[in-house]
Amino acid sequence: MRILHLLNHRRRLNGHVHAAVDLACAQVKLGHTVAMASQGGDFDELLRTNGIETFVVDHERRPGPVLKSVVGLTGLLRRWRPDVVHAHMMTSAVLAWPACKLTRVALVTTVHNEFEKGAILMGLGDRVIAVSAAVAKSMQKRGISASRIDVVLNGTIGSARMTGRSEVPKSLDHPAIVFVGGLHPRKGLPDLLQAFDAVHAQHPAARLYVVGGGPTQDSYTAMARAMASADAIAFAGPQDDPYPWMLGADIFVLPSHADPAPLVLSEAREAGCAVIATQVDGIPELLGQGESGILVPPKSPDRIADALRMLVTDPDQLKAWRAKSQIGIENLRIDRVARAALEVYGRAIGPRAKPSAS
């Protein structure tokens, strides 16, 4: 099968980019011919190393550039002749829809950021991939027929992006609690800061490491500095490879208020952390509905604190939850994601398939 992935850019620190790059590389390993079109970025060399051809398609959202990009993409489809175009973001879906109609190429879209108002535009696809069952339900409520939606739960384990990464744990003080994610409101970091401050008052050896950057970094840093536990909180900033931090951690916490299917949870589980995360969107699905990690209500610092106290004060509980993080972890492998996506492509292509010669 010839597959063209389309997304706005290929830069690091964006979950949808990681998911698309992981998927494209895994599909090549399964024997398919894959290309990726975007505005370029950090992963171009990795893609080329894995035999993936790259093209440039502008994603500027002004009428003139949009029209030019549609024309350019249409020409690319006629030259490269994919069987399916897989669009990963809203602008990508808008550009791909007319180009695919003109060239009679199947269009598949993936809803990565369901919380955005414009996510309904992903319904332009012949088939729509939801990265969790929770996202699928949300898209159905927005008017996309369940008959066109396929759930393909995110997973990263075994991806080409992880090749050559450091397997040496970061040297951290213990008990070490780690957060990895973008520093913006929907990730809920203030809830974790409040919870940690309460726990640290009783267990002063505990340490919190915040890995990531974003628009609220300064305000969150100021918030932490005003707490009694300030000296026990470290902001590490954005990291190209946060995995060593998870390898060095005892506990990983994701206090999100909204999160369709965060890739970081499969990495935290692969690293063997005990996991605490909020019961929102696709998070329970990534934690086996609570079998592989502790689920707490969103926006509940007290409940996060309770879970942290249990793990910090009871070595047996910490050991047990670290072991539980491995339950069902095979379901988070990228080859499972790649095979499931290929099945979706088959359903999208089906109506367009030419009858075999008799």
TrEMBL record:
<dbReference type="Pfam" id="PF00534">
    <property type="entry name" value="Glycos_transf_1"/>
</dbReference>
<keyword id="KW-0808">Transferase</keyword>
<dbReference type="GO" id="GO:0016757">
    <property type="term" value="F:glycosyltransferase activity"/>
</dbReference>
<dbReference type="Pfam" id="PF13439">
    <property type="entry name" value="Glyco_transf_4"/>
</dbReference>
<dbReference type="InterPro" id="IPR001296">
    <property type="entry name" value="Glyco_trans_1"/>
</dbReference>
<keyword id="KW-0328">Glycosyltransferase</keyword>
<dbReference type="InterPro" id="IPR028098">
    <property type="entry name" value="Glyco_trans_4-like_N"/>
</dbReference>
<feature type="domain" description="Glycosyltransferase subfamily 4-like N-terminal">
    <location>
        <begin position="14"/>
        <end position="155"/>
    </location>
</feature>
<feature type="domain" description="Glycosyl transferase family 1">
    <location>
        <begin position="168"/>
        <end position="324"/>
    </location>
</feature>
<protein>
    <submittedName>
        <fullName>Glycosyltransferase family 4 protein</fullName>
        <ecNumber>2.4.-.-</ecNumber>
    </submittedName>
</protein>
